[in-house]
Structure formats: C-alpha cells, structure tokens
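Structure first, sequence second, as always.
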C-alpha cells in the first residue's frame, strides 16, 4: 500500500511539473503572437496562437490529471 501511495505521489508531482512547463511555453508563444514585429506574417501569428492554445490545453489536461492523483491519494489515507 505504501509503495502505491509513493507511485501516486510521484505521478502527481510529475504531472504538475509538466503542466507548469507547458503553461510557461504557452505564455511565451502567446506573447510572441501579440507583440508586433516587422517580419512576422499573418500565418506566423496564427501558428503562434494555435501553438499557444495547444500548449495551454495540454497544461489544463495535466493539471486535471495531477488533481485526480491528489484526490486518489487523499482517499487512500
């Protein structure tokens, strides 16, 4: 039982780290899309917005997975 708790704890921490990393990358893509620059085309802007949404969606997914493991740990204790 203790080993299973440790595995759940490690997964929860890993998923939270993934989520924070994806959130940071998504924010950088968003900032790149909204900051004006001379050589940037509309296609580049749309790609950056799409990438930003993809990374933020992944971040939300991993935050939910982390929360699920946290709830699982709370029920086991």
């Amino acid at each position: 039982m203790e080993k299973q708790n440790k595995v759940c704890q490690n997964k929860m921490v890993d998923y939270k780290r993934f989520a924070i990393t994806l959130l940071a990358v998504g924010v950088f893509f968003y900032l790149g899309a909204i900051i004006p620059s001379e050589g940037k085309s509309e296609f580049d802007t749309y790609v950056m917005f799409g990438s930003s949404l993809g990374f933020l969606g992944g971040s939300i997914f991993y935050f939910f997975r982390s929360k699920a493991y946290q709830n699982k740990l709370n029920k086991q204790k």
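Margin note: The radius of gyration is 17 Å.
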